[in-house]
Amino acid sequence: MADGFSLTDDPWLLLPPATGGAAQEYSLRTALLEAHEFGDPVVELPTQRPAVLRQVLLSVVLDALGRPADEREWMDWFSTGCWSRDQRLRLEAYLDEHRELFDLFDPVQPFGQVADLRTAKGETKNAGLIVATAATGNNVPLFASRTEGDAFSLTPAQAAHWLLHTQCWDTAAIKTGVVGDPKVKAGKTTGNPTGPLGQMGVTLLTGTTLFETLLLNLPVGAPTTSADLPQWRRREPADPRSAGSPQWQERTPEGLLDLWTWQSRRIRLLPEDTDEGLRVTRVLVAAGDRMPHTPEIEPHTMWRLEPTGGSVTSRSKSGTTPPRRPVRLQPGKAAWRGLDALLAPERQSREAGKKTSGFATSKLLDQAGALSLDLGAAYPLRVELSGIAYGNQSAVIDDVLFDALPLPLAALDTDSDIRSALLEVAEQAEQLATAVNHLSADLRRALGTDPIPWDKGQRPGELVLHALDPLVRRLLTGMRGVEDLEGIEAGQLAWEQLAWRRSWEVADGLLQAVPVGAFVGRNASQGEGKPERTYRVSLAEASFLKRRAEILHRADAARRSSSPPDSQ
Q1: What angle do CA 51, 198, 113 make, to 5 degrees?
Q2: 269 with 283: CB under 8 angstroms?
Q3: Whole-angstrom Cα distance, residue 503 to residue 497?
Q4: Share of residues in the chain with pLDDT > 90 (%)
Q5: Angle, alpha carbons 9-13-14 (nearest 5°)
Q6: Residue 404: is it exposed, middle or buried by C-beta count within 10 angstroms (0-12/13-18/19+)?
Q7: Residue 123: CB partners within 8 Å, gap ≥ 6?
Q8: Is the peptide bond before 68 cis (omega within 30 degrees of 0)?
Q9: Rounded distance between C-alpha atoms, residue 112 and residue 128, angstroms
Q10: Tens of pLDDT, residues 350-406
Q11: 1 by DSSP, 3-state: which?
Q12: DSSP letters for 512-529
């Protein structure tokens, strides 16, 4: 019989010191009580961080302490920099009371699992099934060094992380049928959606310590209802919402605790004693609870708003589109290119959404904006965005998406000059990419070929955005604490001058690569009834330079006032 593993008291969370240095593993108790001494958890895959925070750390804090009633009480908690004596005592008492519920291998109530989960034939699967980075089944490459039959061994700490990750991000489609699930057919369950976080782009706020990160991700508001419980307190067999039974439901969450600890799968980890110590080598993953849609209480996502002035038809089964849907991340697209969604205040978005579609930022970013005066304009807020791009029928993982942005708190104020400046910078970058794409199209037409299709291959505009990426991030960091209009204008001018050179470097590369024939040019028809248009290198270059000057108007004005001006 394998020994137990207590998430409460055994080390499994890899945490660095808040002041910097090597990370070490700590227990849940130490991580929470001494949260002010640690940085954010170090994880194997970026998508594990929101899973650990939501499924364990935040949920324990919320269930043990409740949440601040309003921004003033939130600031009282935050300003101390650590838990108060009373809060520490309540956290310790909570962990002591529920210690048995946090045993990963408890024979009766294993954490996040169903104790006697089994199939009719007693089958289990390789532990690699819950590891998102491990190829399993038909995804194992033909000439890979590891086969499906090879053992996959996880330490208890690794198994805990991947267990939480599976509950949040698991792939969709067919799952193993288990004894006690009345909806099993032919040994399988079908129609399983992805884990709840797989339906959205996750937006986490991070501070300078784990303590600050926990509070930044804790919404203010009314106390939770008696029906809103974390999964470890919903284990009674008589409870229809029990997380300890093979049976599952399609329902909406009762509240934040239910949402954060949502059991989208019924799982069982099978440990064994090995020469290397206790290891998880086999697992069983079956169907779990299903959400009909992402609820509006979800605080960790941005929203795409649909007009609410009238009914909107949709391709969904219900026939209508929800008034708001989570924003999903796009592979290859930097987070700053979505600033229009990150900086869309909730109140303004509600009014705009009545007539037109648009965006609303996450509830937590909206809350941080309301607290910006108390936190200070120079507070080093960081936003982490993570998501997963699924493949065929969402049954496989194509890509794991992650980005992190330094975000000036003042940018969350609707009327701030910094917000307007950052939105303009993001728009300028997109316009420069478009200008380079137009240059490329004109050069190809001058050779008698068609432009690169927008949905095929890599267009040169992507090279521009890649070159501008570090400049935008540097500007976001530099705008922290800048409050006067003169400083904002100086920052924008510096950005434009650098963007002027970077965009020309990409454009010049295109111009240098064209053959001699493109300088002669060609005439091309513009359509029936329209005169032909001449395409040649000189005209394409002149058009790009003119458009660049229009986009980067501050840099252009500065160059015109200088003597002598550069050629490009």
Answers
A1: 50
A2: yes
A3: 10
A4: 75
A5: 135
A6: middle
A7: 176, 284
A8: no
A9: 18
A10: 555 455 568 999 999 999 999 988 999 899 999 999 999 999 999 999 999 999 999
A11: coil
A12: HHS-THHHH-EEE--STT
Cβ proximity of 90 and 84 under 8 Å: no
Q: What is the pLDDT of residue 311?
A: 42
Question: Could you tell me where the DSSP H helices lie in 170-260?
Answer: 210-216, 256-260
Q: How far is CA 464 from CA 98, 336, 478, 554, in A?
A: 54, 14, 21, 19
| Chain position carrying tokens 């939770």 | 224
Closest CA to 234 of 225, 223, 244: 244
Residues in the chain: 568
Rounded to 5 degrees, what are φ and ψ at 491?
Answer: -65, -40
Nearest Cα to Cα of residue 153 among 11, 276, 12, 47: 276
Query: For the chain, how far is it from start to end, CA to CA, in angstroms?
Result: 74
d(CA 432, CA 397): 33
CA distances from 506 to 412, 438, 475, 567 (A): 33, 13, 21, 16
With CA atoms as reference, report the closest residue to 13 among 23, 22, 26, 4.
26
Contacts of 399 (CB under 8 A, 6+ apart): 331, 388, 389
Residue 391's SS3 state is coil
With cut-offs at 50, 70 and 90, classify the pLDDT of residue 3: confident
Enter the pTM of the model.
Answer: 0.91
* Strands 303-305 vs 173-176: parallel, antiparallel or unpaired: unpaired
Q: Please give the Cα distance from 247 to 112 (Å, whole number).
A: 14
Burial label, 264 (beta-carbon count in 10 A; 0-12, 13-18, 19+): buried
Report the C-alpha dihedral over residues 266, 272, 274, 279, rounded to 10 degrees. 20
CA distance 388 to 200: 9
Cα gap 147→320, rounded to integer Å: 45
Using CA atoms, how far apart are residues 143 and 273, in angstroms rounded to an integer?
31
